[in-house]
Every structure is written in structure tokens, then in C-alpha cells.
Design goal:
mainly alpha, globular
Length: 182
């Protein structure tokens, strides 16, 4: 595949960020689907994070995450939303990046995404523990981890499917960021 120009790359980054914002706002409009874990969400915008992780450089992925988190919060959140979302996104990104480094023969995109689902919840519980000034909020971790695993698997399956369509658009993948089936 032919390498994309910097303008095309910036456009791709902006499109990913915009799609993440739309998915984030859409998810805010959906009632909480998990009765056993109040406050848990599916994390639809993380589809975009996983796609970015497999198509962009680390710096560019961070740009997408920051833009998505800030703009989604400005359009439909509160100050606490940015704390919870930001820390969840940071924990999730670092964990997914590190697990992805194990390589596609050891961990699939679905496994990387499930890791992100669990760590996103861990990041949010960390913020909650700091606000509440108590570590007892981590008692909620098992329930949140179950939701994180299932939603992470669903996000990973979706991202794995969508990445093939990104390839058909002719988007350039660096050697470090080749999709799973190449």
C-alpha cells in the first residue's frame, strides 16, 4: 500500500476523533444496561481507540483519545466526567499498548481490547477512591471487571471487523501497526 500524505493522515485522525465523540455522546443517551453494575457502560467509543491503536503511532493515538475525551465531555458531561473518563482512558491506553507489544501471535485484538475494558474500570475506580478518600470502592472491581471483559471482547470483535474496512480504504499501516491478519 502506498504511504498516505500528512494531510490524509491528519484527516484520518480527525475522523477517528469525530467518530469517537459521536459514539461517546450516543452512549450517554443509552440507559445503563447492567443492573448488577450501576454506572457501567459498554464503552462504544473505545472501538475508535482500538482502531487507532492498530493504525496510528502512539502520539497520534493519544491525540485521538485526548480530543475524544475532552470534546465528548464538553458536549455532554461534567467536570467529574472528564476525571473519570480521562483516567479510565489513560489506564486503558497504557494497558492496551503494553499488551499489544506482546505481538499478534500471543494476544489478539480482542484480548488487547478486553485488557483495555478491565483497565478502564480500574482507572475510574482509582479516581472514585481518591474522591471518596477510601479504598473500599475497589470492592466494586469484580462486578466492573466482568462488565469490562465482556464489553472489551465485544469492542475487540467490532474493531477487528472494522479494521478490514479501514484497510480497503487504502490507509497506510506502518510496520509497527500492521493489522492482525497481515
Amino acid at each position: 500500500m502506498k504511504k498516505q500524505t500528512s494531510t490524509q493522515r491528519l484527516l484520518f485522525i480527525a475522523l477517528l476523533a469525530a467518530q469517537g465523540i459521536i459514539l461517546g455522546l450516543l452512549e450517554q443517551a443509552i440507559p445503563v444496561p447492567f443492573a448488577f453494575a450501576p454506572g457501567a457502560k459498554l464503552g462504544l467509543a473505545n472501538i475508535i481507540t482500538v482502531i487507532a491503536l492498530y493504525t496510528l503511532s502512539v502520539k497520534e493515538v493519544l491525540a485521538v483519545i485526548v480530543m475524544r475525551t475532552l470534546l465528548t465531555t464538553l458536549l455532554g458531561g461534567t467536570f467529574s466526567t472528564i476525571l473519570y473518563s480521562g483516567m479510565g482512558a489513560l489506564f486503558s491506553f497504557v494497558g492496551m499498548y503494553l499488551v499489544k507489544q506482546l505481538g499478534p501471535k500471543r494476544v489478539s485484538m480482542i484480548g488487547v481490547s478486553a485488557t483495555g475494558g478491565i483497565l478502564h474500570n480500574l482507572g475510574q475506580l482509582f479516581v472514585a477512591s481518591q474522591i471518596a478518600q477510601s479504598w473500599t470502592v475497589f470492592l466494586y472491581l469484580p462486578a466492573m471487571s466482568i462488565v469490562g471483559i465482556f464489553s472489551g471482547v465485544a469492542i475487540g470483535i467490532t474493531a477487528n471487523y472494522l479494521i478490514s474496512h479501514v484497510k480497503t480504504l487504502g490507509f497506510y499501516f506502518s510496520q509497527q501497526n500492521k493489522p492482525m491478519d497481515e
